[in-house]
């Protein structure tokens, strides 16, 4: 379904306090989050409620991934990060791990053509060496093929754990210190940011978590420092386009102060997580 988001772009003149460009879906184009991160939770419960196996829930979760990615592209969001498989998920029953890896492989195989056609770039963060070789190869192939695309960037967090990422970053900086390239007292936020797996990706502006749990589950702990959080009871396979629009409208209703007062906010500046 294309065209639905953009078919009525108009300038808000009514009330004229704002000159924000409104899109046909009620959102303001100049106040969209640049980067949306999503904890896709509730596939298992979705299946359980229908007396289906958990894997059926993951299959429906994959459909929801495709919808949300397409919508991000249509709306004009620049980055979307999807928590597809955590470090802790390796502890799940082997049949479930295998099914998730197979789904991922199918997704990569099916999406390559679409990603090329729609100018989408794929990236991944996590301990990718732990992935089965076939999945890793498919992932590398799609990342390589799409690396020069300039539209939406989709980032899959795979075998991802934020603490592992931070440990990896600490080791990289420690090695630079050991080589005499850096002094411990000179280490800044910038240095750490540059050695994370997310190095050249801006911090998420907005985090969505489905299925009603209020926790971060070891996801992007460094990068989410100033991110707006949104939790919905909706289970991931039921996360529809309307639900996504509601979440984005909620984001646009917020004031992001980054530790400053309301009066200190520049009036015309889009409220983004640039810290
Ligand atoms: C959490 O639900 C979801 C996951 C651990 C996996 C996410 C995977 C997908 C959405 C499908 C495949 C992804 C891609 C990118 C193609 P849960 O199983 O923890 O649900 P529960 O908490 O209800 O048990």
Could you explain the architecture of this structure?
- By secondary structure, the protein is of the alpha/beta class.
- It has a domain of 189 residues: Decaprenyl diphosphate synthase-like (Undecaprenyl pyrophosphate synthetase, 3-Layer(aba) Sandwich), CATH 3.40.1180.
- The chain contains seven helices and eight strands; from the N terminus they run E-E-E-H-H-E-H-E-H-E-H-H-E-E-H.
- Helix 2 packs parallel to helix 3 and helix 5 packs across helix 6.
- The chain is globular, with a radius of gyration of 20 Å.
- The site of farnesyl diphosphate has 20 residues, from helix 1, helix 2, strand 4 and helix 3.
Taken from the alpha-carbon principal axes, the silhouette is globular
Rg = 20 Å
Task: Kindly state the percentage of residues in helix.
Answer: 25-40%
Question: How would you spell out the order of helices and strands?
Answer: EEEHHEHEHEHHEEH
CATH superfamily of the domain at 5-10 and 30-161 and 202-252, by name, is Decaprenyl diphosphate synthase-like
CATH fold category name of the domain at 5-10 and 30-161 and 202-252: Undecaprenyl pyrophosphate synthetase
Average pLDDT across residues? 90
- If classified by CATH, what would the architecture of the domain at 5-10 and 30-161 and 202-252 be? 3-Layer(aba) Sandwich
Strand arrangement in the largest pleated sheet: 5-6-4-3-7-8
């Amino acid at each position: 379904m294309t065209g639905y988001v953009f078919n009525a772009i108009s300038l808000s003149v009514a009330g004229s306090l704002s000159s924000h460009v409104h899109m046909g879906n009620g959102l303001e184009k100049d106040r969209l989050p640049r980067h949306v991160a999503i904890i896709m939770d509730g596939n298992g419960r979705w299946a359980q409620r229908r007396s289906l196996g958990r894997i059926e829930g993951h299959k429906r979760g994959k459909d929801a991934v495709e919808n949300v990615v397409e919508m991000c592209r249509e709306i004009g969001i620049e980055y979307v990060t999807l928590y597809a498989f955590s470090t802790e998920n390796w502890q799940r029953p082997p049949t479930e791990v295998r099914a998730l890896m197979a789904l991922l492989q199918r997704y990569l195989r099916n999406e390559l053509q679409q990603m090329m056609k729609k100018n989408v770039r794929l990236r991944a963060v996590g301990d990718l060496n732990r992935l089965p070789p076939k999945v890793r190869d498919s992932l590398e192939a799609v990342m390589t093929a799409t690396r020069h695309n300039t539209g939406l960037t989709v980032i899959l967090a795979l075998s991802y754990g934020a603490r592992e990422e931070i440990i990896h970053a600490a080791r990289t900086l420690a090695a630079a210190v050991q080589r005499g390239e850096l002094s411990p007292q000179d280490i800044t936020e910038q240095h750490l940011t540059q050695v994370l797996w997310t190095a050249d990706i801006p911090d998420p502006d907005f985090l969505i978590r489905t299925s009603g749990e209020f926790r971060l589950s070891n996801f992007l702990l460094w990068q989410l420092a100033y991110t707006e959080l949104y939790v919905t009871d909706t289970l991931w396979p039921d996360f529809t386009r309307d639900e996504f629009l509601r979440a984005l409208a909620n984001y646009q209703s917020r004031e992001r102060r980054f530790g400053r007062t309301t009066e200190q906010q520049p009036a015309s500046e889009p409220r983004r997580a640039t810290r």
